[in-house]
Design brief:
The chain has 226 residues and is mainly alpha-helical. The chain has helices at residues 17-38, 42-45, 54-75, 78-108, 122-129, 131-143, 151-176, 182-186, 189-218.
Length: 226
């Protein structure tokens, strides 16, 4: 049966609004992946393919989160709902990080994230770099219980993702001879290390920001004193 935390604005899992949101998110994410199949770039044939981009890794995790949420809505499974919420703790801050980094770097110079000949039109650009963060934030704020993860836990997740992605990017570089993002070619090894450390800190901050926003929108659960 459906469950609703006292601070949760809307019922979820549910075959109503929750199902509609997760369906819309899945369609959006799937459309982005379909676009990749028609987007001819050197990445398409390179080792690692489009999954060299943190954006695509984040999009895949967002899709997994919403598929689990969709299945929870259809089956009204509390276990799948809990799994969706656990995935969201990782996918939502990651997508917020991706949006901040991408639009922040684009404000400075779009050439830092894409060569000029491969820059995206607005609609696919929005689908990759804004829509996932928006969908996941809405899901958290209105269809999820409050996160219980603490600062050291979110930092551990952020650092693990940053280190894992750094090793993955360097391994892909060893096979392809070039980095997925032009900014990585500009920076030396120590500067790239600082960028990943900064990104991990920013993702931890994104978790804190999402928790703070949730508390502002939905309130704070009072402790029960006996």
């Amino acid at each position: 049966m459906s469950y609703r935390h006292p601070l949760q604005r809307l019922t979820s899992p549910s075959r109503q609004i929750s199902l509609l949101l997760h369906s819309a998110g899945i369609l959006s994410f799937a459309a982005s992946f379909k676009f990749l199949g028609t987007w001819e770039t050197p990445m398409s044939a390179a080792f690692g393919g489009h999954f060299q981009f943190l954006t695509i890794i984040g999009l895949a995790l967002a899709l997994c989160t919403f598929v689990v949420g969709f299945l929870a809505d259809v089956t009204l499974s509390s276990r799948l709902f809990e799994l969706k919420n656990a995935l969201s703790v990782c996918s939502a801050p990651l997508e917020v990080l991706i949006s901040i980094l991408y639009w922040g770097l684009c404000a400075i110079d779009k050439g830092l994230v894409f060569p000029p000949e491969f820059q995206l039109d607005f609609l696919p650009d929005f689908g990759f770099h804004a829509a996932p963060a928006l969908f996941l934030a809405i899901d958290l704020l209105f269809l999820s219980p409050p996160w219980t993860i603490r600062g050291y836990g979110s930092l551990a997740i952020s650092e693990s993702l940053a280190i894992g992605y750094w090793f993955w990017v360097e391994y892909c570089f060893s096979r392809n001879g070039w980095y997925p993002y032009p900014i990585f070619d500009i920076l030396n090894t120590w500067q790239r290390a600082l960028l990943f450390i900064f990104s991990a800190s920013l993702m931890t901050g994104s978790t804190a920001l999402l928790k703070w926003t949730y508390a502002r929108v939905n309130g704070i659960e009072k402790s029960k004193n006996l």
